[in-house]
Amino acid sequence: MSGGNWKELFLAACEGDIELVRYHVKGGVDINYAHPEFLATPLVACILARQEPIALFLLASGANPHLLSEFDGLTPIQAARQVGLPAVERRLCELGVAEPAVEAQRKSWWRFWGKRAA
Length: 118
Description:
Elements: H1 6-15, H2 18-26, H3 42-48, H4 52-60, H5 76-83, H6 86-94, H7 109-117
InterPro entries: Ankyrin_rpt-contain_sf (IPR036770)
């Protein structure tokens, strides 16, 4: 796998630029990587940005459906539920994502720091 331009892939996923995402995936950019500056996965980030076609494409391209996005404190299914993307949630279940017994109580980093500063 190539490191490629992961940051460009990440931004394209959040903005809904499917052609640029396809280009980077085809070029071998690791879609399961979470850059140390971001601590977020492209899959969870695009789900939170409500980019359903990108999320489905990343899942079809091998994105790990179980991978926690540390910055957001969410797994893909938690993110899909949070923003209301039932098609993504269904696809995750088809890929074997188990229904969590209790949703994670983790808060995202920005929410945590926002409350501490208040």
